[in-house]
Design a protein that fits this description.
hpI Integrase, Chain A; three-stranded antiparallel β-sheet; 47% helix; 8% strand; elongated; DNA recombination; DNA integration; DNA-binding
């Protein structure tokens, strides 16, 4: 038998362990792994060491995860964080996060990290971040409070992970949000279509385009939910459609809905049901997606192609002032509430956990009083004259 092969940085430590030797954070590290030092295991240990060296070189090495029982993990993590720039950590954290979050969420994270956080954090060291310094940097931005909230949400999530990894002692933005003093808004993004505008839009369309828009007006679904619908989601007997997935341009396949409350059943009102019945002639036999791009015969890929190939042309032909497709959702909400439908029912139809969002967003369409307000309570609970 020939001599056993030797591997750099790898040696038998005992009958049941192998020692791996490498440099990290300027220190020489020796860690043992529980493997008998057989030739095959020595090769495996060498491959493990090579992966560690690559991760160190790429800045993605996590000592505590790789060696969870190591007594040196926390000390070395602190040593690394004492030198690590916050923006470098955020970038490395972002790439790891891609493995566990939806593509659409990842797209939003990337915009925040590369569009805002890297510039805001600058050359700040991760371990030196503090609330006062972060507040000072946020004060200097020209961002709206909505954007500031998104920036802090991503930063908070990243620093929570850094805290769990032992890289920082505390999260400076935990349970805290910086907001600027903004003047009251004179307008908002809610701009529903009137009944007359809806009629003109639908009359300017035909076939699948008309069905899609009519269905959108009368279900209030998000665009990402509309394009994800399959015929198997329709319950014809109960006249509801199950909303349990969404599709965005960033995702390669259907993902979960925006929120847990987004998984819901939406009642098919007569105009929505009519649109579905007419749509059957186009896509029902394929037993897949309900709505297709008529130009390609494929499922709609998201909001952008809908706007460019159908929506803009429909509004132009109808001579209706342009609003983006999401206004069909706002139109649904305003119609339901103006007609006196219960806000909680509307909230459930639209995928909100409670009616707080409905009250804040669509409060102007909730009738404050009607001619017979209070009369039903009197009739139900007030004692009759002969009973007093």
């Amino acid at each position: 038998m020939g001599a056993e092969r030797e591997y750099e940085g790898v040696r038998p430590a005992s009958k049941s362990t192998i020692e791996i030797d490498f440099y990290y954070a300027g220190e020489r590290c020796k860690e043992r792994i529980k493997l008998q030092p057989t030739p095959a295991n020595m090769k495996r240990a060498a491959q493990h060491r090579a992966a560690i060296l690559l991760a160190i070189d790429q800045g993605t090495f996590d000592y505590a995860t790789t060696f969870p029982n190591s007594k040196r993990a926390n000390a070395l993590a602190r040593a690394v964080s004492s030198k690590m720039l916050a923006c470098d950590y955020i970038v490395a954290w972002l790439e790891k996060k891609a493995l566990t979050i939806k593509s659409s969420t990842m797209s939003g994270y990337r915009k925040i990290v590369y569009g805002h956080l890297i510039g805001i954090l600058g050359n700040d060291v991760l371990a030196d971040l503090n609330r006062g310094g972060i507040r000072e940097k946020l004060e200097k931005t020209n961002c709206s409070n909505k954007t500031l909230a998104n920036i802090q949400s991503v930063l908070r999530t990243a620093l929570n992970d850094a805290l769990d990894d032992g890289l920082i002692q505390s999260n400076p933005v935990a349970d805290w949000t910086y907001r600027k003093v903004e003047p009251p808004k004179t307008d908002d993004d809610i701009d529903p279509f009137t009944s007359e505008e809806q009629t003109r839009i639908l009359n300017a369309c035909e076939g699948q385009a008309r069905n899609f828009i009519q269905f959108a007006f009368w279900t209030g679904l998000r665009t990402s939910e509309l394009v994800a619908l399959d015929w198997s989601d329709v319950d014809w007997k109960r006249r509801v459609i199950r909303v349990n997935k969404a599709r965005t341009q960033k995702a390669v396949s259907a993902e979960d809905t925006k929120t847990r409350a987004g998984r819901r059943e939406v009642k098919l009102l007569a105009p929505a049901l009519s649109a579905l019945m007419d749509q059957k002639q186009y896509t029902y036999t394929q037993w897949a997606e309900i709505f297709q791009n008529p130009n390609t015969g494929d499922r709609w890929a998201g909001d952008q192609p809908i706007r460019k190939t159908m929506w803009q042309h429909a509004l132009k032909r109808a001579k209706v002032r342009y609003r983006y497709p999401y206004q069909t959702r706002h139109t649904y909400a305003s119609m339901m509430l103006s007609a006196g439908e219960h806000p909680m029912w509307v909230a459930k139809q639209m995928g909100h956990a409670d009616w707080g969002m409905i009250r804040r967003t669509y409060g102007r369409w909730i009738p404050s009083e009607v001619d017979d307000a209070g009369s039903r309570a009197v009739a139900m609970f007030c004692p009759k004259p002969d009973e007093q």
